């Protein structure tokens, strides 16, 4: 009985540990995505609000475009076309990228797309946060199965001790030590 309980506790520990590690990786992925999106949107706003003319304005705009492209590449690497939420973010990211490539860097051109991009990233963040908060399905299922196994093991244990007592002769203890040899 003790071995069964120890094995169940060990299994639960393994599953919960694995789920915890997965949640940590998922949280790190989400934090990095948020940081890259914030950097990208900041560069979009910088590009849209850099005054026209002058060498310093061109330099600042060029720096913003380079930073935008770096953030864009990092975000594309994190998003997957397999998921609907990611696809909409990728579409808005492509629209921003196209406008930057054309040199259409006005606030009227970039801000609405950046806002829709932010909304799509918020949907991804909300979905991922729910996954992190709820934990894994495996932990829940494992916990239920272990609970059922413990109940069954206690039930079988109580039945076997009741059967042993019922089969013992009346008046005799259920267990007697062997007689000492002379």
Helix and strand pattern? HHHHH
The average pLDDT value, as a whole number, equals 81
Kindly report how far apart the N and C termini lie: 36 Å
In terms of DSSP E residues, the strand content is under 5%
Fraction in helix: over 70%
Q: Could you tell me the number of beta strands? A: 0
Shape: rod-shaped
Low-confidence stretches: none
List the main descriptive attributes of the protein structure presented here.
single chain; 182 residues; mainly alpha; 82% helix; rod-shaped
Structural features, described:
- The protein is mainly alpha-helical and 182 residues long.
- The chain is 82% helix and 0% strand.
- It has five helices and no strands.
- The protein has helices at residues 2-49, 55-78, 84-102, 107-134, 137-167.
- The chain is rod-shaped, with a radius of gyration of 32 Å.
- The model has no long low-confidence stretch (mean pLDDT 81).
Q: What is the secondary structure topology, with strand pairs?
A:
Elements (H helix, E strand, L loop, with lengths): L1 H48 L5 H24 L5 H19 L4 H28 L2 H31 L15
Summarize the structure in short.
The protein is 82% helix and 0% strand. It has 182 residues and is mostly helical.
